[in-house]
Amino acid sequence: MKVGFIGLGVQGKFLAINLAKGGHDLMVYDVREEPLRELASAGARIARTNREVGQHAEVTEICVVDDRQVESVVLGAEGVLQGATPGSLFVIHSTVHPATIARVAELCLAKGVEVVDAPVSGSEPGARNRTMCYMVGASREAFDRCHPLFSTSGSNIFHTGGPGTGIRAKLAHQIIICINMLSAFEGMQLGIAAGVAPEVLENVVHGGGAQSLVADNWQKFNPGRHSVGIFYKDLRVALEYAHELGITLPGAALTQQMVEQILRLDRP
C-alpha cells in the first residue's frame, strides 16, 4: 500500500519504522532532519512538504502533538489535503478535541477524503515492541483498509464505532490511566515513607485488589520529561470536553494539577 506518515516524534518515528519494515511504500515528513534520516535508512521515501505526502499516499497517518498542528498539517497552504486525491484516507493518531476531528473531517469530506480518528496507547515502548493499542473511529470499510497498517505496530486494534468515537474512547482511557498514576504515586509514597521496600509494595499491589499496570511497574515507570506536557494537554482536552458534556471530573482535574510531581524522576 502507498502510505504516508507525518510526525516522527518519540512515538511516531517507531510507528513509521514498523510500516517500512512491513513492506509498505512509505513516504514520511517531519520538520526535523534527524528522524527523516533514520526513516530513509529504514527504506522510506522522504517528502519535503505535507502536500507531497498527500500526493503519494492512499492512506496518510498523522501523529503530531495537538489540535493546532493537526489543522496545520491537514488544512494548511501546503497541507496534506492539498495533494490528496479523492478516495484517500487521513488517519489522525493525535489526542485532540473531538470538535477538531469533526471540523477537519467535514472539510476533508468535501474533497472526497475520509478522516479516521485512531488515537493510540503504548507510547515509545509500545511502538518499539509492536504492542500498541488502537482505538479506531471509522466506517467499517475505512477500518478494514487501515487494519493491515495498524497491525504492523500492535494487535489490540478496536473498532470503536463511527467517525469520532476513537478520540472519545481515548479521552476516557487517558483519564483512567492518569488517575491510576495519581493513586500509585500516593500509595507508593506512603508505603516507602513508612519503611516498606518498593519491590515489596509492588508485589503486594500486584497480588491484591490494587493491581494495575502502572503500579506493577512503578519503579520502572518513567515515561520521560516530555510526557509531562503530553499528559497535561490530554487531561486539558478531556476536562474541556467533559465541561461541554455537562459532567464533572474532579479526579482528572486534581491529577492535571499534580502531573509534574507525579512524573518527576525522583518520585518514590
Description of the molecule:
This protein has 268 residues and is of the alpha/beta class. It folds into 2 domains: 2-163, Rossmann fold (3-Layer(aba) Sandwich), CATH 3.40.50; 169-262, Orthogonal Bundle (N-(1-d-carboxylethyl)-l-norvaline Dehydrogenase, domain 2), CATH 1.10.1040.10. Helices cover 54% and strands 14% of the residues. It is built from 13 helices and 9 strands. It has helices spanning 12-21, 33-41, 50-56, 67-75, 80-83, 98-109, 123-129, 140-150, 165-193, 198-207, 213-216, 226-245, 250-262; strands at 2-6, 25-29, 45-46, 59-62, 89-92, 114-117, 120-121, 133-137, 156-161. The strands form 2 sheets. Strands 3-2-1-4-5-6 form a 6-stranded parallel beta sheet, sandwiched between helices. It is globular and about 60 Å long. The termini are far apart.
Structural class: alpha/beta
Task: Give the CATH superfamily of the largest domain.
Answer: NAD(P)-binding Rossmann-like Domain
| Low-confidence residue ranges | none
Amino- and carboxy-terminal Cα gap = 47 Å
Assign the CATH topology of the largest domain. Rossmann fold
Strand content: 5-15%
Counted up, domains total 2
Order of strands in the sheet with the most strands?
3-2-1-4-5-6
Give the second-level CATH assignment, the architecture of the largest domain: 3-Layer(aba) Sandwich
* SSE succession: EHEHEHEHHEHEEHEHEHHHHH
> What is the count of DSSP helices, taking H or I runs of 4+ residues?
13
Rg estimate, integer Å: 19 Å
Total number of beta strands:
9
Mean of pLDDT: 94
CATH class designation of the largest domain: Alpha Beta
Sketch the major β-sheet.
Answer: 6 strands, parallel
Shape category: globular
